[in-house]
Design brief:
Elements (H helix, E strand, L loop, with lengths): L1 H33 L7 H33 L2 H13 L6 H21 L9 H10 L8 H18 L2 H29 L4 H13 L1 H7 L5 H20 L3 H21 L1 H21 L4 H6 L5 H17 L11 H13 L6 H10 L2 H4 L8 H5 L3 H6 L1 H14 L1 H10 L45 H12 L15 H17 L9 H10 L12 H14 L6
């Protein structure tokens, strides 16, 4: 009976992974092609069942191969030698000279691209943030720290040189140096934990050359910095758990506080995810170490970044007289659900319900309903009415949910399935005209330079390459290659590697929970874009090393 129970447990995670991936492919295909889920489709149900079994078997097979390899090497002289080398080198990553050399190499690759797309990718609300600084009219919709950094740089260097491009370029270079330093630190961490030269070289090239990574290294949006500090926070917590000695641990705690604070200051959803993470760690730690109050007490420093975040945001908001009170970002999914119900189920709605929806979202706004993005709808949402009658809004939402549950599910999934369907083509802005072009085939990346900047490429072939990647879909249509550019493929890759590490009983996996919590927050966002989950590209080399690889030659 005990052996049977153990065998059942070994299949639980592969079956879970198989069901999730199969469901994502089945439903994602339907959403991509039909704009809704078809639960009664017998053919889709059969495909789901077959894929779930196939993926579960593949995961179990891969794990059995890893188990056999581990068993074969566990007592071999080669493995003993490698493990000894790993222990001897633990916490001895790159020396300063080597660290600087790797940092310089990654930054140089990015800088060459920057010359090709000079002054940088000044896009995704960049003009709005700079305008806030130039007009001294601030809003808490965008993180104030980023607004001041970006807008301040552009305004200062424009006043100094008369060129907005210089300010954009300087800001982009500073951001590039910060992010490539973090990339180098990640590689150094991997070296300290057994990553071989080949894997480290491949990771350095990935960070310095792979287009998706470079796009956000050189993009003025807050997403690159947020993602880099998110992954750095995870790495620092892993290091802190491994350290011994109060002085070293206290120093690492300070680094964690700074990194987590900056992560939250660059994106609001980072705070919500981190809050849940910190509370979970404290509760789980208390349960596990209730007899060791000293060790559990040391984890209370994880709450400090939240306190500092709230204090700093409050002070900055008061000092800048920043306006607040808009609720659209928090209500993205409910707004989209009500709009879809009005548009698709209007014949079945009572006049009272129709009038109630129109009171919160104007008829003009409802006429602009787009299944895959809610940005336009949010502009027509009546914040003042919501503030005066929140209960009425949620009663309306709940009443219509009971009557039209699948309409609600479709509305939500259509703005988020690109995060979990590997075959999704990212083209949520199709038909939108921006400063220099109209989105037609793809909106994988913003690419352009918003006013007051202007593209002045020094290497036109690079500029054309990134333009093609951004607004054409050729790389998203190539089998296998398309997965390298797919947010959902990286998500399931990370999930597989995390479960693999869990299967192989790797310790200290809880910090990766923070990555998953942030990913869950984007499911409640206005649409699916790479910018919101680019941290998956940054973390996957680390997960690959700890999850699937044996210790390599150092």
């Amino acid at each position: 009976m005990r052996n049977q129970s153990n065998r059942n447990k070994t299949w639980q995670l592969p079956v879970l992974f198989g069901v999730l991936l199969s469901l994502s492919i089945t439903w994602g295909y339907q959403l991509e092609h039909y704009d809704h889920i078809v639960l009664t489709d017998i053919k889709s149900a059969g495909i789901f069942a077959a894929l779930a079994v196939l993926f579960a078997l593949l995961v179990q097979f891969s794990w059995s191969r890893l188990d056999k390899r581990d068993a074969r090497l566990s007592h071999s002289e080669e493995q003993i030698h490698v493990v000894h080398k790993k222990e001897m080198s633990k916490y001895k990553g790159y020396d300063r000279g080597c660290f600087l050399a790797v940092w310089f190499a990654i930054a140089l690759f990015s800088f060459i691209v920057l010359l090709g797309v000079y002054p940088g990718f000044f896009v995704y609300d960049a003009q709005t943030e700079v305008t806030e600084v130039l007009t001294r009219s601030f809003n808490t919709h965008h993180p104030l720290l980023h607004v001041l950094m970006l807008g301040g740089s552009v305004a200062f260097f424009h006043k100094l040189t008369g060129s907005y491009n210089v300010g954009i370029f300087v800001y982009t270079v500073l951001q590039m140096l910060i992010m490539t330093w973090i990339f180098t630190y990640i590689i150094s961490f991997m070296k300290r934990h057994g990553a071989g030269r080949k894997l480290r070289t491949a990771t350095a090239l990935f960070f310095g050359v792979f287009p998706t990574v470079v796009m956000y290294t050189l993009c003025s949006s807050k997403d690159g910095l947020f993602s880099a500090f998110l992954v750095l926070t995870v790495i620092l917590i892993l290091e802190w758990e491994e350290l011994t000695g109060n002085d070293k641990r206290k120093c690492k705690q300070r680094q964690i506080v700074v990194s987590a604070l900056l992560m939250m200051l660059f994106r609001h959803n980072g705070m919500y995810a981190y809050l849940v993470f910190a509370v979970f760690v404290l509760i789980a730690g208390r349960e596990k170490h209730r007899k060791n109050t000293v060790k559990n007490g040391r984890r209370f420093f994880l709450i400090l970044p939240i306190i500092l975040y709230l204090a700093i945001n409050t002070v900055m908001g008061a000092a800048l007289k920043a306006e607040s009170g808009e609720h659209q970002e928090m209500l993205t999914v409910p707004i989209q659900q009500l709009a879809r119900t009005y548009v698709y189920e209007g014949d079945e709605l009572s006049q009272e319900d129709k009038d109630a929806i129109v009171s919160y979202i104007s008829e003009e706004g409802l006429s602009h309903y787009t299944p895959r993005i809610s940005d336009i709808l949010k502009m027509y949402f009546d914040n003042s009415l919501y503030e005066s009658d929140r209960l009425g809004f949620w009663k309306l939402w709940g009443r219509l949910f009971i009557k039209h549950p699948m309409c609600y599910v479709n509305a939500w999934f259509l703005t988020s399935y690109g995060y979990w369907y590997p075959g999704a083509v990212i083209n949520v802005y199709q038909g939108n005209t921006v400063f220099t072009f109209t989105y037609k085939d793809s909106s994988y990346f913003g690419y352009e330079v918003e006013l007051p900047g202007e593209r002045t490429s020094f290497i036109p072939i690079i500029d054309e390459f990134y333009r093609k990647l951004s607004i054409e879909k050729f790389q998203q249509n190539i089998p296998v290659i398309s997965l390298l550019f797919s947010p959902a493929a990286y998500f399931f890759g990370c999930l597989y590697l995390f479960l693999t590490a869990q299967h192989r009983k790797k310790n200290l996996l809880y910090p990766y929970l923070l990555i998953m919590l942030v990913w869950l927050t984007v499911l409640l966002g206005p649409t699916y874009l790479v910018r919101y989950v680019v941290y998956l590209w940054y973390i996957i080399p680390v997960l690959f090393q700890i999850g699937a690889l044996q210790v390599e030659e150092l």
